[in-house]
Design brief:
Distance between the termini: 34 Å
CATH topology of the largest domain: Rossmann fold
Number of domains: 2
Low-confidence stretches: none
Helix content: 10-25%
Shape: globular
Largest sheet: 5 strands, mixed
Order of helices and strands: EEEHHHEHEEHEE
Oligomer: single chain
Number of strands: 8
Bound molecules: zinc ion
Strand order of the largest sheet: 5-4-6-7-8
Structural class: alpha/beta
Mean pLDDT: 88
């Protein structure tokens, strides 16, 4: 373990939490197990802010993420990504903002297949989706400004969370709102808002 390993969020010192096989996934709780990859993945925990991350992924480039994780088999280990999670999040947002949302510009950052924004447009929202792995020819600076930005289950997927937060802030209108959710280390979803 690299003794000088620092937290990418707060620069705090970190301790080894666990090491698991690369093919371990959240679907194991549903009885679906992939064969062992034989590659260990270290997870460390920040002693100061509690952020959990996999330091070995920090040096991967986007092509490596695309090849090894966000590939054609990704839906096998995160089937809710396709429809269940976007539909649940759309329902929550519609009930949270009501008709007021129709007059604001909304961006779903890290929106994958764009399903959440699509569902919201059916409810008369001005929603667009952006995902670095889908909209590869679009730069963040080209997107414009948004009154509401959502980033559901995005923070735990990016190696540089400071860059992510700086991108989100650069896209936010004055008095805009960022809503995000991420996983706690016990697997529960934790929502936060700015
Ligand atoms: Zn930290």
């Amino acid at each position: 373990m690299d003794e000088n390993l620092l937290c990418p969020v707060c620069n705090g010192t970190c301790s080894l939490l666990d090491a698991v096989d690369f093919n371990k996934s959240c679907e194991e709780k549903n009885g679906k197990f992939l064969s062992l990859a034989g590659t260990p993945v270290r997870y460390v925990l920040c002693n100061q802010c509690g952020f959990c991350f996999a330091p070995d992924f920090a040096n991967w480039n986007p092509e490596e993420f695309e090849e090894k994780i966000y590939n054609g088999a990704y839906n096998l280990v995160d089937p809710d990504f396709v429809e269940i999670r976007p539909r649940a999040n759309a329902g929550k947002l519609v009930s949270m903002f009501g008709d007021r949302a129709h007059s604001i510009k909304h961006l779903d950052y890290g929106g994958g297949n764009g399903r959440l924004a699509e569902l919201l447009r059916e409810s008369n929202w001005q929603s667009v989706s952006y995902d670095t792995f889908v909209d590869k020819n679009t730069r963040v600076e080209q997107l414009g400004k948004f009154d509401l930005i959502t980033a559901f289950e995005v923070f735990e997927h990016v190696p540089d969370v400071r860059k992510l937060m700086s991108d989100l802030l650069s896209l936010l209108s004055p008095n805009g709102l960022i809503l995000f959710s991420t996983l706690l280390s016990d697997g529960n979803i934790n929502s936060n808002q700015k």
